[in-house]
Description:
By secondary structure, the chain is of the alpha+beta class. The chain is built from two helices and 17 strands. A four-stranded mixed beta sheet has the order 2-9-8-5, with no helix packed on it. The chain is globular, with a radius of gyration of 21 Å. About 6% of the residues have low confidence.
Amino acid sequence: MKKIYRFIVFCIMLAVSFFADDDTQAQASVRLNQTNATICVGGKTVLEVVGTSKHVKWSTSDKNVAKVGSAGVVTGIRKGVATITAKADSFTCKCRVVVNATYGAAVSDVTIKRETPVMLTFTKNAVVSYKIQDPDICSAGWGSWSGNEIPLNITPKKVGVTYITCTNGANTESVRIRVRVKRFRSILLIFMRLQVTAVI
C-alpha cells in the first residue's frame, strides 16, 4: 500500500514540475516577449506575443528604420528608433526597437534556467566588452566568432533579475540585455525529496 501511495505522489509531483509554472502561457496576460530591443542595421530579432493564440497583426512606426514581417521578425534598416506594434483582437503590445549602425543582439530579454547563448551581430570591426550589473545572479563568457556573429554565453547562479551591458569600444553603441534566472526543477531532486518524506 505504501509503495502505491508513494508512486501516486511521485506522479503528481512530476506532473506539477512540468506543467505548474507561475509564468505559463495559459495564465499569463497578453504581452510581448520583448518590450525593448537593440539590433544593428541588417540584424534581426524575433518578437512573439505570449498569452494568446489569436492572429497577430504587426506594424512599424517607421519602416525606414525597422521593418517587421507577419511572423514578428524585425529587421534593422538604418540607424534610429522605431516602435513595433502587435495587435491581437482587443490587445495591443508595443516594443521599442533601437537600430545601431554597427552592433546589435538577437534578443534583449532572456529568461534562463541553464547556460544560454545570446547572439551579438556586428557589421564592422569592434572592440567588445560586457559588464554584469549583479554578478551574483549570473556569469557570462564569449563564445567563438561565426562570420560577423559571436555568442555571449550566460550561466545562471541564483534566481533573480539582472542586466548585462555590452559595449562596442570602437564607438558609443551598446546593448543592454535583461536576464531573468528561474528556478530549475529537477526530477531527481523531486524524487529525493519524496524518498526523504517517505522515510520520515
